[in-house]
């Protein structure tokens, strides 16, 4: 009862958080920040209540080190998963060559418009400074019929990569 009267007269006593708690909140904000401005604002607000201390700085450093180590562990797990996927794909291709060929052709058909665009075969003609423009210079302004260049340019004008 005495503490209730004391809070009414002197205000509520500020409860200090542990450095680990403050650091955990700050590390979470660092890892999930949308923009540097929002990060600065959120960290400043968090530290305005507690203030900087060596213990908080060291706890933040430990938290960031742990996050980097966890990322390294995740990278190793992703690498292992990629190796297992590769082995499974090679096994599938070995066991089912016809299906693998059909799948590869389908993937190539999906990626061909992107590849043509990246080489410079655009809807409006060869892109200046691209591989297609350099190839077209070989013909000195006249592209013969039924050449590979003409075929690629025609595909580039008709096929469109959907972003």
Describe how the helices and strands are arranged.
Blueprint (H helix, E strand, L loop, with lengths): L1 H9 L8 H14 L3 H15 L3 H42 L1 H23 L1 E2 L2 E2 L4 H8 L9 H11 L5
Helix pairs in contact: 2-3, 2-4, 4-5
Commentary on this structure:
The chain is mostly helical. It has two domains: about 1-95, no CATH class; about 95-163, no CATH class. Helices cover about 75% and strands about 0% of the residues. The protein contains seven helices and two strands; from the N terminus they run αααααββαα. It has helices at about 1-10, 20-30, 35-50, 55-95, 95-120, 130-140, 150-160; strands at about 120, 125. It has a two-stranded antiparallel ribbon. Strand 1 (about 120) and strand 2 (about 125) form a beta hairpin. Helix 4 (about 55-95) crosses helix 5 (about 95-120). The longest helix is centred in the middle third of the chain and has 42 residues, at about 55-95. The mean pLDDT is about 80. Keywords: Membrane, Transmembrane, Transmembrane helix. Belongs to the IFI6/IFI27 family. InterPro entries: IFI6/IFI27-like, IFI6/IFI27-like_sf. It is found in: Membrane. Pfam families: Ifi-6-16.
